[in-house]
Specification:
The chain folds into two domains: 3-253, P-loop containing nucleotide triphosphate hydrolases (Rossmann fold, 3-Layer(aba) Sandwich); 260-471, no CATH class. The chain contains 21 helices and 15 strands. The protein has helices at residues 9-18, 26-40, 55-64, 79-85, 112-121, 147-150, 156-162, 176-179, 195-199, 202-206, 242-247, 260-270, 286-301, 314-334, 343-348, 361-366, 368-388, 394-401, 414-421, 427-433, 442-458; strands at residues 69-72, 93-96, 128-131, 136-140, 152-154, 172-174, 183-188, 209-211, 218-220, 223-229, 250-253, 281-283, 338-340, 463-465, 469-471. The protein has a five-stranded parallel beta sheet. Strand 14 (463-465) and strand 15 form a beta hairpin.
Length: 501
Protein backbone atom coordinates (compact mmCIF):
# COMPACT_ATOMS: atom_id res chain seq x y z
CA UNK A 1 0.00 0.00 0.00
CA UNK A 2 1.29 3.45 -0.91
CA UNK A 3 1.39 5.23 2.45
CA UNK A 4 2.04 8.61 0.88
CA UNK A 5 -1.33 8.38 -0.86
CA UNK A 6 -2.92 8.68 2.59
CA UNK A 7 -3.00 12.44 3.08
CA UNK A 8 -5.77 13.10 5.60
CA UNK A 9 -6.75 11.97 9.07
CA UNK A 10 -9.86 10.27 7.67
CA UNK A 11 -7.75 8.19 5.24
CA UNK A 12 -5.53 7.21 8.15
CA UNK A 13 -8.45 6.08 10.30
CA UNK A 14 -9.84 3.93 7.49
CA UNK A 15 -6.42 2.36 6.86
CA UNK A 16 -6.02 1.45 10.53
CA UNK A 17 -9.55 0.01 10.71
CA UNK A 18 -8.83 -2.08 7.63
CA UNK A 19 -5.62 -3.39 9.21
CA UNK A 20 -3.34 -2.12 6.43
CA UNK A 21 -1.65 0.49 8.64
CA UNK A 22 -0.34 -0.41 12.11
CA UNK A 23 -0.96 1.90 15.03
CA UNK A 24 1.17 1.15 18.09
CA UNK A 25 3.66 2.64 20.53
CA UNK A 26 7.37 2.80 19.78
CA UNK A 27 8.16 -0.03 22.19
CA UNK A 28 5.48 -2.21 20.58
CA UNK A 29 6.70 -1.27 17.12
CA UNK A 30 10.30 -2.25 17.89
CA UNK A 31 9.19 -5.45 19.62
CA UNK A 32 6.96 -6.63 16.76
CA UNK A 33 9.48 -5.75 14.06
CA UNK A 34 12.17 -7.57 16.07
CA UNK A 35 10.00 -10.68 16.32
CA UNK A 36 9.39 -10.61 12.57
CA UNK A 37 13.12 -10.20 11.88
CA UNK A 38 14.06 -13.14 14.12
CA UNK A 39 11.42 -15.39 12.57
CA UNK A 40 12.59 -14.57 9.07
CA UNK A 41 16.18 -15.47 9.93
CA UNK A 42 17.52 -12.11 8.81
CA UNK A 43 20.59 -10.75 10.62
CA UNK A 44 19.62 -8.09 13.13
CA UNK A 45 22.61 -5.75 12.98
CA UNK A 46 24.90 -6.45 10.03
CA UNK A 47 27.51 -3.84 11.02
CA UNK A 48 28.02 -5.23 14.55
CA UNK A 49 30.69 -7.95 14.79
CA UNK A 50 31.53 -10.14 17.77
CA UNK A 51 28.39 -9.69 19.88
CA UNK A 52 26.18 -12.46 18.47
CA UNK A 53 26.56 -14.73 21.49
CA UNK A 54 26.89 -12.12 24.24
CA UNK A 55 25.51 -8.60 23.85
CA UNK A 56 22.91 -9.14 21.11
CA UNK A 57 20.89 -11.78 23.06
CA UNK A 58 20.74 -9.44 26.07
CA UNK A 59 19.66 -6.55 23.86
CA UNK A 60 16.95 -8.71 22.28
CA UNK A 61 15.65 -9.60 25.75
CA UNK A 62 15.50 -5.92 26.71
CA UNK A 63 13.60 -4.96 23.55
CA UNK A 64 11.18 -7.88 23.86
CA UNK A 65 10.52 -6.74 27.43
CA UNK A 66 9.89 -3.17 26.15
CA UNK A 67 12.62 -1.88 28.44
CA UNK A 68 14.57 1.33 28.34
CA UNK A 69 18.20 0.20 28.68
CA UNK A 70 21.83 1.23 29.13
CA UNK A 71 24.92 -0.10 27.34
CA UNK A 72 27.75 -0.23 29.84
CA UNK A 73 31.30 -0.66 28.56
CA UNK A 74 34.73 0.81 27.93
CA UNK A 75 35.54 3.11 25.04
CA UNK A 76 35.64 1.73 21.53
CA UNK A 77 33.14 -1.11 22.11
CA UNK A 78 30.58 -0.05 19.46
CA UNK A 79 28.01 1.22 21.97
CA UNK A 80 26.95 4.21 19.87
CA UNK A 81 26.88 2.14 16.68
CA UNK A 82 24.62 -0.37 18.38
CA UNK A 83 22.20 2.38 19.42
CA UNK A 84 22.08 3.83 15.91
CA UNK A 85 21.42 0.38 14.49
CA UNK A 86 18.14 0.29 16.45
CA UNK A 87 16.55 2.48 13.77
CA UNK A 88 16.42 -0.58 11.49
CA UNK A 89 13.75 -1.98 13.84
CA UNK A 90 11.48 1.02 13.34
CA UNK A 91 8.76 1.17 10.68
CA UNK A 92 9.88 2.79 7.45
CA UNK A 93 7.35 5.62 7.93
CA UNK A 94 4.90 6.72 10.62
CA UNK A 95 2.08 9.29 10.34
CA UNK A 96 2.64 12.62 12.11
CA UNK A 97 1.06 16.02 12.26
CA UNK A 98 2.78 18.21 9.64
CA UNK A 99 4.92 20.97 11.09
CA UNK A 100 4.67 19.70 14.67
CA UNK A 101 7.94 19.97 16.60
CA UNK A 102 7.26 16.84 18.64
CA UNK A 103 6.04 14.57 15.78
CA UNK A 104 2.53 14.36 17.22
CA UNK A 105 0.39 11.30 16.52
CA UNK A 106 -2.69 12.44 14.49
CA UNK A 107 -4.83 9.88 16.33
CA UNK A 108 -3.66 10.79 19.84
CA UNK A 109 -2.25 14.34 19.78
CA UNK A 110 -0.57 15.70 22.91
CA UNK A 111 0.32 19.11 21.47
CA UNK A 112 -2.25 21.85 22.09
CA UNK A 113 -1.82 23.35 18.62
CA UNK A 114 -2.36 19.96 16.96
CA UNK A 115 -5.46 19.25 19.01
CA UNK A 116 -6.90 22.63 18.01
CA UNK A 117 -6.16 21.92 14.35
CA UNK A 118 -7.92 18.53 14.48
CA UNK A 119 -10.95 20.04 16.23
CA UNK A 120 -11.18 22.65 13.48
CA UNK A 121 -10.62 20.39 10.42
CA UNK A 122 -11.77 16.97 11.64
CA UNK A 123 -11.06 14.07 9.28
CA UNK A 124 -9.93 16.53 6.62
CA UNK A 125 -6.85 17.36 8.70
CA UNK A 126 -3.75 16.80 6.59
CA UNK A 127 -1.05 14.43 7.82
CA UNK A 128 2.61 13.82 6.94
CA UNK A 129 4.88 10.76 7.00
CA UNK A 130 8.13 10.67 8.99
CA UNK A 131 11.02 8.37 7.98
CA UNK A 132 12.81 6.09 10.43
CA UNK A 133 16.13 7.95 10.32
CA UNK A 134 14.43 11.18 11.41
CA UNK A 135 13.02 9.38 14.45
CA UNK A 136 16.41 8.91 16.11
CA UNK A 137 17.71 11.71 18.39
CA UNK A 138 21.12 11.45 20.04
CA UNK A 139 22.70 13.69 22.67
CA UNK A 140 26.23 13.57 24.07
CA UNK A 141 25.97 14.29 27.79
CA UNK A 142 28.26 17.09 28.95
CA UNK A 143 28.33 18.97 32.28
CA UNK A 144 27.01 22.14 30.62
CA UNK A 145 23.75 20.54 29.42
CA UNK A 146 20.75 22.23 31.02
CA UNK A 147 17.27 20.98 31.79
CA UNK A 148 16.00 23.36 29.11
CA UNK A 149 18.22 21.64 26.53
CA UNK A 150 16.99 18.24 27.52
CA UNK A 151 13.31 18.80 28.39
CA UNK A 152 12.33 22.32 27.37
CA UNK A 153 11.51 25.76 28.70
CA UNK A 154 8.91 28.51 28.54
CA UNK A 155 9.63 30.97 25.71
CA UNK A 156 8.57 34.46 26.89
CA UNK A 157 9.17 35.94 23.41
CA UNK A 158 6.74 33.47 21.87
CA UNK A 159 4.22 34.31 24.61
CA UNK A 160 4.58 38.05 24.03
CA UNK A 161 4.21 37.77 20.26
CA UNK A 162 1.14 35.55 20.54
CA UNK A 163 -0.43 37.41 23.44
CA UNK A 164 -0.57 34.23 25.54
CA UNK A 165 -0.09 33.54 29.24
CA UNK A 166 3.24 31.99 30.19
CA UNK A 167 1.35 29.02 31.61
CA UNK A 168 -0.01 28.15 28.15
CA UNK A 169 1.57 25.11 26.56
CA UNK A 170 1.64 27.02 23.27
CA UNK A 171 4.48 29.11 24.71
CA UNK A 172 6.79 26.13 25.24
CA UNK A 173 10.16 25.71 23.59
CA UNK A 174 10.65 21.96 23.37
CA UNK A 175 13.95 20.30 24.30
CA UNK A 176 15.56 17.29 22.67
CA UNK A 177 13.54 14.74 24.59
CA UNK A 178 10.07 15.94 23.50
CA UNK A 179 11.40 16.32 19.94
CA UNK A 180 12.27 12.60 20.04
CA UNK A 181 8.58 11.74 20.57
CA UNK A 182 7.48 8.72 18.48
CA UNK A 183 11.10 7.61 18.18
CA UNK A 184 14.33 6.67 19.96
CA UNK A 185 16.19 9.03 22.27
CA UNK A 186 19.82 8.11 23.04
CA UNK A 187 22.09 9.77 25.62
CA UNK A 188 25.81 9.02 25.32
CA UNK A 189 28.06 9.10 28.42
CA UNK A 190 25.20 9.39 30.91
CA UNK A 191 27.42 9.87 34.03
CA UNK A 192 28.62 13.20 32.62
CA UNK A 193 25.07 14.53 32.89
CA UNK A 194 24.55 16.70 35.97
CA UNK A 195 22.56 15.09 38.77
CA UNK A 196 19.66 17.55 38.56
CA UNK A 197 19.33 16.81 34.82
CA UNK A 198 19.25 13.08 35.55
CA UNK A 199 16.42 13.76 38.00
CA UNK A 200 14.50 15.36 35.13
CA UNK A 201 14.49 11.98 33.36
CA UNK A 202 12.67 10.15 36.18
CA UNK A 203 9.15 10.71 34.87
CA UNK A 204 10.08 9.82 31.30
CA UNK A 205 11.37 6.40 32.32
CA UNK A 206 8.65 5.54 34.80
CA UNK A 207 5.46 7.45 33.93
CA UNK A 208 6.32 8.24 30.31
CA UNK A 209 5.83 12.02 30.54
CA UNK A 210 7.74 15.24 31.20
CA UNK A 211 6.88 18.52 32.87
CA UNK A 212 8.06 21.94 31.70
CA UNK A 213 9.30 24.31 34.40
CA UNK A 214 6.90 24.66 37.32
CA UNK A 215 3.75 24.79 35.20
CA UNK A 216 1.30 21.86 35.37
CA UNK A 217 1.79 20.90 31.71
CA UNK A 218 2.23 17.20 31.09
CA UNK A 219 3.47 15.66 27.86
CA UNK A 220 2.89 11.88 27.79
CA UNK A 221 5.69 11.07 25.38
CA UNK A 222 5.97 7.88 23.34
CA UNK A 223 9.72 7.27 23.25
CA UNK A 224 12.27 4.50 23.67
CA UNK A 225 15.15 5.80 25.82
CA UNK A 226 18.64 4.27 25.64
CA UNK A 227 21.88 5.29 27.36
CA UNK A 228 25.58 4.52 27.15
CA UNK A 229 28.16 4.81 29.93
CA UNK A 230 31.76 3.94 30.71
CA UNK A 231 32.14 2.09 34.05
CA UNK A 232 35.24 4.14 34.81
CA UNK A 233 33.15 7.33 34.68
CA UNK A 234 31.19 6.20 37.72
CA UNK A 235 34.09 7.36 39.86
CA UNK A 236 36.13 9.60 37.53
CA UNK A 237 33.97 12.34 36.04
CA UNK A 238 30.54 11.65 37.44
CA UNK A 239 28.04 8.95 38.32
CA UNK A 240 24.55 7.72 37.58
CA UNK A 241 22.30 8.58 40.49
CA UNK A 242 20.73 5.56 42.13
CA UNK A 243 17.03 6.39 41.50
CA UNK A 244 17.75 6.76 37.77
CA UNK A 245 19.60 3.43 37.64
CA UNK A 246 16.62 1.85 39.34
CA UNK A 247 14.32 3.10 36.58
CA UNK A 248 16.47 1.75 33.71
CA UNK A 249 15.01 -1.60 32.71
CA UNK A 250 18.15 -3.46 31.56
CA UNK A 251 21.87 -2.93 32.01
CA UNK A 252 23.79 -4.56 29.15
CA UNK A 253 27.56 -5.03 29.36
CA UNK A 254 29.65 -4.68 26.22
CA UNK A 255 33.19 -5.98 25.74
CA UNK A 256 36.20 -6.02 23.46
CA UNK A 257 36.59 -8.83 20.88
CA UNK A 258 37.64 -12.04 22.60
CA UNK A 259 39.28 -13.61 19.52
CA UNK A 260 41.82 -12.16 17.14
CA UNK A 261 39.84 -13.29 14.08
CA UNK A 262 36.75 -11.37 15.21
CA UNK A 263 38.85 -8.31 15.97
CA UNK A 264 40.44 -8.50 12.52
CA UNK A 265 36.99 -8.64 10.94
CA UNK A 266 36.00 -5.46 12.79
CA UNK A 267 39.21 -3.68 11.79
CA UNK A 268 38.89 -4.76 8.15
CA UNK A 269 35.32 -3.45 8.14
CA UNK A 270 36.23 -0.06 9.59
CA UNK A 271 39.74 0.71 8.29
CA UNK A 272 40.19 2.78 5.13
CA UNK A 273 42.30 0.48 2.99
CA UNK A 274 40.71 0.79 -0.45
CA UNK A 275 42.46 3.98 -1.47
CA UNK A 276 41.09 6.14 -4.25
CA UNK A 277 42.93 8.48 -6.59
CA UNK A 278 46.10 7.98 -8.57
CA UNK A 279 48.12 6.21 -5.87
CA UNK A 280 49.36 2.62 -6.05
CA UNK A 281 47.20 -0.35 -5.13
CA UNK A 282 47.49 -1.10 -1.41
CA UNK A 283 47.63 -4.66 -0.10
CA UNK A 284 47.95 -5.74 3.54
CA UNK A 285 49.15 -9.35 3.97
CA UNK A 286 47.36 -11.43 6.56
CA UNK A 287 50.36 -11.69 8.91
CA UNK A 288 50.68 -7.88 9.01
CA UNK A 289 46.97 -7.53 9.83
CA UNK A 290 47.41 -10.12 12.59
CA UNK A 291 50.34 -8.23 14.09
CA UNK A 292 48.36 -4.98 14.10
CA UNK A 293 45.41 -6.66 15.82
CA UNK A 294 47.62 -8.42 18.34
CA UNK A 295 48.99 -5.05 19.50
CA UNK A 296 45.58 -4.23 21.02
CA UNK A 297 45.42 -7.62 22.76
CA UNK A 298 48.91 -7.12 24.18
CA UNK A 299 48.04 -3.60 25.34
CA UNK A 300 44.91 -4.77 27.16
CA UNK A 301 46.93 -7.11 29.34
CA UNK A 302 50.06 -4.98 29.78
CA UNK A 303 50.52 -3.90 33.39
CA UNK A 304 51.93 -0.52 32.29
CA UNK A 305 48.59 0.41 30.69
CA UNK A 306 45.49 1.44 32.64
CA UNK A 307 42.97 -1.37 32.23
CA UNK A 308 40.14 0.70 33.72
CA UNK A 309 40.43 3.16 30.85
CA UNK A 310 40.56 0.39 28.27
CA UNK A 311 42.24 0.10 24.87
CA UNK A 312 39.81 1.07 22.16
CA UNK A 313 39.23 -0.94 19.01
CA UNK A 314 40.14 2.30 17.26
CA UNK A 315 43.81 1.49 17.99
CA UNK A 316 44.16 -1.32 15.41
CA UNK A 317 41.90 0.55 12.98
CA UNK A 318 44.05 3.69 13.03
CA UNK A 319 47.27 1.67 13.10
CA UNK A 320 46.30 -0.42 10.06
CA UNK A 321 45.46 2.74 8.13
CA UNK A 322 48.85 4.21 9.04
CA UNK A 323 50.61 0.97 8.08
CA UNK A 324 48.93 1.08 4.66
CA UNK A 325 49.91 4.73 4.26
CA UNK A 326 53.57 4.03 5.05
CA UNK A 327 53.56 1.26 2.44
CA UNK A 328 51.89 3.65 0.03
CA UNK A 329 54.55 6.30 0.69
CA UNK A 330 57.33 3.78 0.04
CA UNK A 331 55.71 2.66 -3.22
CA UNK A 332 55.37 6.26 -4.40
CA UNK A 333 59.04 6.99 -3.67
CA UNK A 334 60.20 3.76 -5.32
CA UNK A 335 57.74 4.23 -8.21
CA UNK A 336 56.10 0.84 -7.59
CA UNK A 337 52.61 0.06 -8.85
CA UNK A 338 51.72 -1.98 -5.77
CA UNK A 339 52.15 -1.03 -2.11
CA UNK A 340 52.41 -4.11 0.10
CA UNK A 341 52.55 -3.49 3.85
CA UNK A 342 55.43 -4.92 5.88
CA UNK A 343 55.95 -5.51 9.59
CA UNK A 344 58.47 -2.65 9.65
CA UNK A 345 55.62 -0.38 8.59
CA UNK A 346 53.96 -1.18 11.93
CA UNK A 347 56.89 0.41 13.76
CA UNK A 348 56.49 3.47 11.52
CA UNK A 349 52.82 3.61 12.59
CA UNK A 350 53.69 4.12 16.27
CA UNK A 351 52.15 7.66 16.31
CA UNK A 352 48.74 6.06 15.79
CA UNK A 353 49.30 3.84 18.85
CA UNK A 354 50.70 6.12 21.52
CA UNK A 355 47.57 8.23 21.89
CA UNK A 356 45.17 5.31 22.23
CA UNK A 357 45.87 4.25 25.81
CA UNK A 358 46.33 5.71 29.27
CA UNK A 359 49.41 4.57 31.17
CA UNK A 360 50.05 3.62 34.75
CA UNK A 361 52.98 5.10 36.69
CA UNK A 362 55.43 2.51 35.38
CA UNK A 363 54.43 3.24 31.81
CA UNK A 364 54.75 6.99 32.35
CA UNK A 365 58.32 6.49 33.51
CA UNK A 366 59.25 4.48 30.43
CA UNK A 367 57.42 6.70 27.94
CA UNK A 368 54.62 6.09 25.46
CA UNK A 369 56.88 5.52 22.45
CA UNK A 370 58.98 2.92 24.26
CA UNK A 371 55.86 1.13 25.47
CA UNK A 372 54.45 1.15 21.93
CA UNK A 373 57.66 -0.44 20.54
CA UNK A 374 57.51 -3.11 23.23
CA UNK A 375 53.89 -3.85 22.35
CA UNK A 376 54.72 -4.17 18.66
CA UNK A 377 57.61 -6.53 19.34
CA UNK A 378 55.44 -8.65 21.65
CA UNK A 379 52.70 -8.77 18.99
CA UNK A 380 55.20 -9.81 16.30
CA UNK A 381 56.56 -12.53 18.59
CA UNK A 382 53.07 -13.93 19.25
CA UNK A 383 52.09 -14.03 15.58
CA UNK A 384 55.49 -15.34 14.44
CA UNK A 385 55.47 -18.08 17.06
CA UNK A 386 52.19 -19.35 15.63
CA UNK A 387 53.40 -19.16 12.02
CA UNK A 388 56.84 -20.69 12.62
CA UNK A 389 55.68 -23.55 14.86
CA UNK A 390 55.60 -26.00 11.92
CA UNK A 391 58.58 -24.55 10.03
CA UNK A 392 62.30 -25.25 10.30
CA UNK A 393 64.12 -21.95 10.82
CA UNK A 394 67.50 -23.46 11.72
CA UNK A 395 69.07 -22.96 8.29
CA UNK A 396 68.41 -19.21 8.35
CA UNK A 397 69.57 -18.82 11.95
CA UNK A 398 72.76 -20.79 11.26
CA UNK A 399 73.61 -18.47 8.37
CA UNK A 400 73.62 -15.54 10.79
CA UNK A 401 75.44 -17.58 13.47
CA UNK A 402 78.27 -18.10 10.98
CA UNK A 403 78.83 -14.35 10.87
CA UNK A 404 76.31 -13.18 8.29
CA UNK A 405 74.38 -9.93 8.61
CA UNK A 406 71.63 -8.29 6.59
CA UNK A 407 70.90 -4.58 6.49
CA UNK A 408 67.33 -3.68 5.45
CA UNK A 409 65.14 -0.60 5.87
CA UNK A 410 61.46 0.21 5.54
CA UNK A 411 62.28 2.50 2.58
CA UNK A 412 64.04 -0.20 0.54
CA UNK A 413 62.32 -1.22 -2.73
CA UNK A 414 60.83 -4.69 -2.83
CA UNK A 415 63.22 -5.89 -5.53
CA UNK A 416 66.25 -4.89 -3.43
CA UNK A 417 64.83 -6.65 -0.36
CA UNK A 418 64.36 -9.90 -2.29
CA UNK A 419 67.82 -9.58 -3.86
CA UNK A 420 69.47 -9.15 -0.46
CA UNK A 421 67.39 -11.95 1.04
CA UNK A 422 68.50 -14.35 -1.71
CA UNK A 423 71.99 -14.26 -0.23
CA UNK A 424 70.69 -15.85 2.96
CA UNK A 425 70.29 -19.59 2.63
CA UNK A 426 66.63 -20.63 2.84
CA UNK A 427 65.27 -17.17 3.76
CA UNK A 428 63.10 -16.62 0.67
CA UNK A 429 61.81 -20.19 0.84
CA UNK A 430 60.97 -19.73 4.52
CA UNK A 431 59.12 -16.50 3.74
CA UNK A 432 56.96 -18.27 1.15
CA UNK A 433 56.31 -21.19 3.50
CA UNK A 434 55.22 -18.79 6.25
CA UNK A 435 51.96 -18.09 4.42
CA UNK A 436 52.57 -16.69 0.94
CA UNK A 437 51.12 -18.14 -2.26
CA UNK A 438 53.54 -19.99 -4.54
CA UNK A 439 53.16 -17.32 -7.25
CA UNK A 440 53.55 -14.38 -4.86
CA UNK A 441 54.63 -11.08 -6.40
CA UNK A 442 57.97 -9.50 -5.57
CA UNK A 443 56.47 -6.91 -3.17
CA UNK A 444 54.63 -9.71 -1.34
CA UNK A 445 57.77 -11.84 -1.09
CA UNK A 446 59.62 -8.80 0.30
CA UNK A 447 56.90 -8.44 2.94
CA UNK A 448 57.27 -12.13 3.80
CA UNK A 449 61.05 -11.80 4.15
CA UNK A 450 60.58 -8.80 6.40
CA UNK A 451 58.09 -10.75 8.53
CA UNK A 452 60.46 -13.71 8.95
CA UNK A 453 63.36 -11.50 10.01
CA UNK A 454 61.24 -9.37 12.36
CA UNK A 455 59.67 -12.52 13.78
CA UNK A 456 63.04 -14.15 14.50
CA UNK A 457 64.19 -10.91 16.10
CA UNK A 458 61.04 -10.67 18.25
CA UNK A 459 61.52 -14.32 19.31
CA UNK A 460 65.11 -13.43 20.28
CA UNK A 461 66.64 -15.82 17.74
CA UNK A 462 68.28 -12.94 15.88
CA UNK A 463 69.62 -9.59 16.93
CA UNK A 464 69.19 -6.21 15.23
CA UNK A 465 71.19 -3.00 15.40
CA UNK A 466 71.45 0.23 13.44
CA UNK A 467 74.98 -0.43 12.19
CA UNK A 468 74.83 -4.16 11.41
CA UNK A 469 71.15 -4.73 10.68
CA UNK A 470 70.03 -8.29 11.45
CA UNK A 471 72.80 -10.46 12.88
CA UNK A 472 73.33 -13.38 15.23
CA UNK A 473 72.45 -13.17 18.89
CA UNK A 474 75.38 -13.06 21.25
CA UNK A 475 76.04 -16.48 22.72
CA UNK A 476 76.61 -16.56 26.48
CA UNK A 477 80.23 -17.14 27.41
CA UNK A 478 80.99 -20.58 28.79
CA UNK A 479 82.36 -20.71 32.31
CA UNK A 480 85.93 -22.16 32.45
CA UNK A 481 86.20 -25.70 33.74
CA UNK A 482 87.44 -25.78 37.33
CA UNK A 483 89.62 -28.58 38.69
CA UNK A 484 89.37 -27.58 42.34
CA UNK A 485 86.13 -27.07 44.27
CA UNK A 486 85.31 -23.49 45.14
CA UNK A 487 83.15 -21.93 47.79
CA UNK A 488 80.23 -21.79 45.33
CA UNK A 489 80.42 -25.56 44.85
CA UNK A 490 80.29 -26.31 48.58
CA UNK A 491 77.01 -27.92 49.72
CA UNK A 492 74.63 -25.76 51.74
CA UNK A 493 74.51 -26.12 55.51
CA UNK A 494 72.48 -29.06 56.75
CA UNK A 495 68.75 -28.38 57.04
CA UNK A 496 68.82 -25.21 54.93
CA UNK A 497 67.89 -24.80 51.23
CA UNK A 498 70.24 -23.03 48.87
CA UNK A 499 68.09 -20.49 46.95
CA UNK A 500 70.98 -19.22 44.84
CA UNK A 501 71.85 -22.35 42.84
Amino acid sequence: MNLHAIETLGDLRRGIEAGTIPHRSVHQEVRENLIARIRSGEPLFTSIVGYNDTVIPQLINALLSQHNFILLGLRGQAKTRLLRALTTLLDEYVPVMPGCEINDDPLAPICGACRARIIADGDATSIAWLGRDARYVEKLATPDVTIADMVGDIDPIKAARSGLQLSSELTMHYGLLPRANRGIFAINELPDLAGKIQVGLFNVLQEGDVQIKGYPIRLPLDVLVAFTANPEDYTARGKIITPLKDRIGSEIRTHYPVERELAMAITAQEAWLVRSGQGPTVEVPGFVAEVVEEIAFQARQDRRIDKRSGVSQRLPISTLENVASNAERRALICRDDMAVARVTDVYAAAPSITGKFEMEYEGELKGAESVARDLIRAAVATVADGCFSHLDTRQVIEWFDLGGSLQLSDAMPASDVVACASEVQGLVELAVAAGLPADASTPLVAAGVDFVLEGLYALKKLNRSDDKGFHATEQPQRRPMRTEPSVEDAPPPSGKKNYYN
